């Protein structure tokens, strides 16, 4: 298993997405860019380990309803900046609707995921949080050299997309970007956990999903990330234009982020 992965008792998919070479001949600093699934079930030991990381910011990409249903646990003395979306349309999370209403097959799972990724970069709530995240990376405020952690529910889609954007901004090679994105499949051992997850889904929805369908829906594939990038390029022309036009990441902000995170 990759040494990027950090084993916690009850926080899934926790890993460092720094420490990659960049096109400028430098390297993304390790220990400053962290990602994971949600922290609602974090054990006391997990909280102590998080405390030891000295986080400067936590970016929670979940919807308000998700945060209410599974509130994050915090350690004593937690003082990190918390960045989260404030838009609550009251609508059920799309992946829950999918699980309840559509055929649970590998093909339908992949179609849903590609649709999700094509729309994800343009959700107004996501864009607002993404923008605040990049400002946090630039070191605004008093936490200029503390790690930043991003997470959503499973730490794979919203989190994976934002990590990929960060890699692009820092000049990480596309192959390394995709490899890091795909580490989710290793981190959560989907193939091994698929049978138990299928049982949980059946209990939640009353519907049966095959193990292959679970892997397609709860894992990640290059085509998902490629769908997001292709849609961005269709609408904005390039990832760089999207960063500037949709998220306000101009040349000055990029320079500050690169200066803080490159070694």
What labels describe this entry?
single chain; 263 residues; alpha/beta; 5-stranded mixed sheet; 12 helices; 52% helix; globular
Largest sheet: 5 strands, mixed
Instruction: Name the shape in a single word.
Output: globular
Approximate helicity band: 40-55%
Low-confidence regions: none
- Which structural class should the secondary elements be placed in? alpha/beta
Distance between the termini: 25 Å
What is the percentage of strand-forming residues?
5-15%
Instruction: Give the rounded overall mean pLDDT.
Output: 90
**Strand/helix succession:** EEHEHEHHHEHHHHHHH
Enumerate the strands of the largest sheet in spatial order, edge to edge or round the barrel: 1-2-5-3-4
Number of helices: 12
Q: How many strands appear in the DSSP assignment?
A: 5
Roughly how many Å is the radius of gyration? 18 Å
Structure description:
- The chain is built from twelve helices and five strands.
- It has helices spanning 44-53, 64-69, 94-101, 106-119, 124-137, 158-170, 174-187, 190-205, 211-218, 222-236, 239-247, 251-261; strands at 15-16, 33-36, 57-60, 81-84, 148-151.
- The protein has a five-stranded mixed sheet with strand order 1-2-5-3-4, covered by helices on one side.
- Strand 3, helix 2 (64-69) and strand 4 (81-84) form a beta-alpha-beta unit.
- 38% of the residues are buried.
């Amino acid at each position: 298993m990759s040494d990027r992965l950090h084993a916690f008792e009850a926080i899934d998919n926790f890993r460092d997405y720094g420490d990659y070479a960049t096109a400028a001949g430098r390297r993304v600093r390790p220990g400053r860019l962290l990602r994971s699934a949600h922290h609602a079930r974090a054990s006391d030991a997990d909280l102590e380990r998080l405390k030891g990381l000295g986080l400067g910011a936590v970016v929670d990409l979940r919807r308000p309803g998700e945060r209410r249903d599974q509130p994050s646990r915090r350690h004593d003395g937690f003082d990190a900046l918390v960045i989260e979306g404030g838009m609550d349309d009251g609508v059920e999370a799309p992946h829950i609707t999918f699980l309840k209403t559509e055929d649970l097959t590998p093909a339908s799972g992949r179609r849903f995921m590609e649709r999700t990724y094509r729309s994800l970069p343009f959700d107004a709530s996501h864009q607002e949080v993404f923008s605040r995240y990049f400002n946090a990376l630039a070191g605004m405020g008093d936490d200029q050299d503390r790690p930043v952690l991003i997470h959503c529910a499973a730490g794979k889609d919203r989190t994976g997309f934002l990590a990929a954007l960060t890699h692009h901004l820092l000049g990480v090679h596309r192959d390394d970007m995709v490899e890091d994105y795909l580490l989710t499949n290793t981190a959560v051992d989907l193939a091994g956990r698929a049978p138990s997850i299928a049982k949980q889904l059946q209990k939640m929805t009353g519907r049966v999903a095959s193990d292959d369908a679970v892997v397609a829906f709860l894992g990640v594939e290059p085509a998902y990330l490629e769908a997001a990038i292709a849609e961005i390029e269709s609408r904005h022309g390039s990832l760089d234009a999207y960063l500037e036009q949709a998220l306000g990441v101009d040349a000055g902000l990029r320079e500050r982020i690169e200066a803080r995170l490159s070694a």
